[in-house]
Predict the structure.
Amino acid sequence: MKNFKLSHYLNYIVIAIVGIVFTLLSFTGNVKSLYLLMLENILIAVLLSVSLSIVVGFLGELSLGHAGFMCVGAYLGGKASVLLEGVLGNTLINVIVSMLIGGIIAAIFGAIIGLPALRLRGDYLAIVTLAFGEIVRSIFMNSSKTSFGGSFGLSTPRYDKDYLFIVGFVVVLICLAVVQNMMRSKHGRAITAIRDSEIAAKATGINVTKYKLIVFTVSSFFAGVAGVLYSFTQYNVQSTNFSYNYSIEILVMVVLGGMGSINGSIIAATLITFLDVKLQTVLTGDLAVLQDFLYAIILIVIVIYNNAPGLKNFREGYNLNVLFDKISSRKNNPANIQDDEASWHRVPSKIQIDEVLSTKIQRDPTASIKPDKEGK
Amino acid sequence: MEFLETLINGLSIGGTYAMIALGYTMVYGIAKMLNFAHGDVIMVGGYTIYVILAQTGYPFLGLAAAILFCVLLGVAVEKVAYKPLRGASPLAVLITAIGVSYLLQSSAQMIFGSAPKMVTLVHINSINIGALQIEGHVVVTLISSFVIMLLLTLFVKYTKVGRAMIAVSEDKGAAQLMGINSNAIITLTFAIGSALAAVAGFFMLLKSPSLTNTMGAMPGIKAFTAAVIGGIGSIPGAMVGGILIGIIEAFSLKSAAIAPYTNAIEFLILIVILLVRPSGILGKKRREKV
């Protein structure tokens, strides 16, 4: 464990501890089932936002069909669990098998949608993914009552609810392990390179086709798994729940958490789902829309603040990273700068020639005076 | 005869879509951004008509007010939300546009509630030509949308401002060097697009009087589909695409078996066209450069 860095594993540890605490509490009967349901919803949201974050934050493509992939998973995984109930019974194995089925089918759809992504960029891809979500939804909505329930919704067996959240925690940890390891490997570097400049990435020999397909497949796999998990928490899967608005809500989580930050997505997903559940009882009727209104404002303000070229100086002077740096002075040690924390918006899309020319080349006082302990 | 009726219906639906698609395509051509909130400008227009109609009782005063209000709104949104992001990554602009769309929808719901409002504009008698019976609103929509499209084409082709718009969409930097104020042109484009959206909102209310805060969302996405099919950035392309989508919709709604899948079919066509010919029917192919 020469390169062991606690910060790399901190999120696993925190999630595992939270999971164990809740498991212990629920075994001793100290958690109301209402809170367990909230916990399940949070875990589903975390899965969705982390999986969307690799498409939007790391690959830099906008997918507006994430709810569509979830819908595929929820319906097909839910259907699989209904069919498997006769063979496997209402057991943990049934849950695992149907999760795999739902995830894999969603992943296949993800790969199919990934194909147009190879030819299209940006706005076009956003519309194609949006179209995909709507197509999927309208197919399930108009399905016959015996196949997927149509407008009645698909009734799913309910796995013992009090323990479903444990499955959820394990799935989130697996998802995190897959996504984080992928992003910290050479493949993750390739993916962020494609985001920063596709042409430059191609020129350096990165197989853009392969990586785009991988990202879409992995992302939709976990969205599908989240869908299956969702179908187990509900009596009934309704296609209306997977509308375009839900995709936007997941996008809000990703943007709020910070593009290209997995931990940020987790925190934002937790926060937003928690608020969703809490506000549901406070804001009733037409007031409920106040929440959407706030999300919209948050989305606009955050994106403008993070991206407006005019706010560049302001942004670099005052933000959380600067604050953290002041407290921990971690930026002074080059070994502590992690690539996967390099935020999305800091990478300029074009080289600013004037800026480059006017920069005086200075010796970095902190570098290379003392060589690193690891001899880098 | 039924075929002809459906075709005329389709042309009329297509006329409405084409007007919305023009807003998308012009903004895309000039500001190089997908104005996701464009569909919701239709809805804002609809509510303006509703308010004015309830106050005064004159539907056309409502239309005029809607055009004015939508123009102001479009320009304000451009100044506040999109202008600061000029030069930022396209993803950021797109997400902001989605935020604006969400903002407009939720504001409308906060003000007017989620229950649909009934807006009965003018009643127009249907027209009979032999065995052919065409509903009045279809005729009105058809004729006025084609007149507007013709006027817009003439405006862009033959006026100085219109040609400036083409210049900015071809090359913003070069246009600026020729003395064109490209910021003003972008603002103007948003204004024209929003005005067209308001008129489209009027036509949509003429067709079905129910007004909700999401009434613009689906037509907006479909009109964008139309703009892409026709070739985004191209004004004739948006018209062709809009009319094509309208005709497909009219024929698919006619058959009971296909009707529930109308949206799915239109989106499927979009995906196929983007795969086969990403630049659309009349669009120009652009090479990506470093």
